[in-house]
Amino acid sequence: MKIIGLLLVPLTSMVVLWGVITAVTAGEGLELREYKTVWTNLRLPAYKLISEIQRERLISAQLLRNVADESAVAAQRTKTDAARDSFAQLSSKSKDRSEEIRTQVDAVYTQLDRLDSVRGEIDAGLSDRLHSVEAYNSVIDTLYSLHRKVALIDDIPIYEQSRVVIDMGYARELLSREQALGLGTVSAAERRLFTQLAGNRRFLIDQGLAELDPALRDPQVALISSPAYQRMRMMEDQIIAGGTPMGWLSTTEGLAKAFNEAQMRASTLLNERAEPVADEVLSRAFLLAGTALALVIVSIAFSLRMGTRLSKELGALRLAALEVSQERLPHVVAKLRKGEKVEMPELSVASTTVEIDDVGKAFSTVQQTAVEAAVGQAQLSEGVGHVFRNLARRSQTLLHRQRIQLADMQHRATDPEQLDDLFKLDHLTTRMRRHAEGLIILSGATPGRGWSRPVPLLDVARGAAAEVEDYQRVVVEPMSGQRLAGAVVGDVIHLIAELIENATVYSPAHTPVIVRGEGAARGFAFEVEDRGFGMEPEELAEYNERLASPPEFDLADSDRLGLFVVSRLAARHDIRVTLRGSPYGGTTAIVLIPEEHVAEPEPDAPAKAVQKEPAARPMRVVRSD
Description:
- This protein is of the alpha+beta class.
- It contains 16 helices and eight strands.
- A five-stranded mixed sheet has the order 2-4-5-7-6. A three-stranded antiparallel sheet has the order 1-3-8.
- A hairpin with a 5-residue loop joins β6 and β7 (587-594).
- The longest helix is centred in the middle third of the chain and has 90 residues, at 248-337.
- The radius of gyration is 60 Å and the shape is rod-shaped.
- It holds the Pfam family NIT.
- It catalyses: ATP + protein L-histidine = ADP + protein N-phospho-L-histidine.
- Residues 600-625 are annotated as: Disordered.
C-alpha cells in the first residue's frame, strides 16, 4: 500500500495537471467561440443602436434649428426605441458572461433610461442644441465603453485590430457630433466643442490607419482620400474659423454613411477571423489533451505494473523471511536438539529487481549462518552434556564405593560417637549422590538408580527428606498406604528432595518444612510447605511457567539448577508441579503424580503405611544399591 501510495502522488498530480492544461487550452478556444456570440448579442445590437441614436441626435439638432418637422423626429424616435428594445433583449443573454460586462450593460441601461427626459426637454424648449448634443453624446459614450469591454479576446492580433476598429468607429461618432453642431450658425461654445471634436477625430483616424492591417485599412484609406472627405475638411476649417459653409449636411451625411458601412465591414471581418482561430485553438487543445491523456494512461499503466511487480516481489520476500524465522529455523533447531541431522535448502526469491535479489541472498546467508550457529550451539550443548554425564558417572561410581565402605564401617563400629560421625558422612554422601544425579539430568540422560517393585509413598517422602542438609527441620506427615511405581521412584525422590531443599534454604532456620501427601482423583499429590517470606505474584507466575514448560538449560543460569532439574524430571514422567502461596506466608509446592504411576497399598500391611516417624530422625529406608 505504501508503494501504491507513493505512485499515486505523482500520478494524481499528473492527472490534475492534465486536467488544468486541458481546461485552460479548451477554455481559450471556447472563449474565442464566445467572441461570435458576444458580437451577435452585444456589439452588433450596440452598433445598430448607436446609429439610430446618432440619427436622432442629428434630427433633434435640426428640430432645434427649425429645419426639421416634429413628424420626422417622432419617426426617428420610434426607430431608436425599437433598436433600444432589441438591444435590451439580446444583451440580457450575454450580459452575465462576466461581472465587468454586467456592470457596463447596466450602465448602458441607465443612460438609455435618460433618453425620455432628454426628449422631453427638447420638446418643451428647455434644452439648447449644445446641451442636447452632449446628452446624446453621454449615451453613445457608454455604448462605446461597452464595445471596449466586450472586445477583449485572448488572440492578441484580433484584439489589437478590434481595438483599432472601435477607435475608427468612434472617429465616425465624432464626425456625427460635428455634423450636428455644424448646422447653420455656430455659437462660440459650440465652435470650441466643434474644434475639439475635429482634432480628436483627425488624431484617431491618423493613428488608427497606421495600426490597421491592409485588409481593414484599404477601405478607410479610400474614404480619407476621396474628394468628399477633402471637401469636408475644408468645411471644418471654415466652421472653426467662424464661417458657415454651404452643403455641410449633405457632404457629411454621405461620408458618415460611408464610414458606417466601412466600420460594419471591418467588425464583421474580425468576427469571421475569430471563428477559425477558435477552431484551431480547440483542435490544438484536443490534440494536446489527447496526447497528454495517452501519456497519463501509459504512465499509470507502467507505474501500476511496476508497483504491482515490486509489491509481489516484496511480498514473496516477506513470506520467505517469515517462513525462515517461524518455520525453518525453529524446525532445524528442534531437530538439532534431538541430535538429528538437518539439511537446510537455500532461500530462493524470484525477482527481477537487483536490490530485492540481494536481500534474498542476504537472507539465505543469514539462514545458513543461523543454522551453523545452531549446529555449533547444539554441539556445544552436547559436549557439555557429555562432560556433565562423564563427571557425574565417575562421581556416582566413587560415591557408590564410598557408601559401601561406610556401611561396612557402620556395622563394625561400637563407639557411639564414631557411629554418629559415620552416619553424618553417609548423609553427606547421599546428598553428593543427588547432586551427581542432577548433573546427569542436566546432560539429558537418566540417572542409574531405580527400584524393581513399588515403594510406599511415605517412604518416598522420607527418602527425599533424608537427601537434604537440614533434614532435622523436615516434618513428614502420615500418608495413605499407596505406593509409587519402582521405575519412577528415583526421579520422584530427587524431585521432592530438590523442592524440600529449596524450602529449607529460603525459610528461617527455626521454622519447619512440612511434607504431606494424599490421594487425588487423578493420582497422588505431595505438598511441600515452608514458612518463609514467600514470593511475589509475578515471581510465582514466572516459576510456574518454567515448571510447566521446561526451557533449554542455560549454562549462564546456574543459580536455578534445582528449578531446571525439577522441571526436567516432571516433564519426563508427566508430573505436574505448581507453586502457590502458603497460609503461613511462605510457599507451598504441589506435586501431582499421575495415577498411572500410583499403585494400591499392600493388602497385608495397611497399618504400616500410616505409622509416623519422628521428623528429626534420619530415615534411610530407600537405597539405590
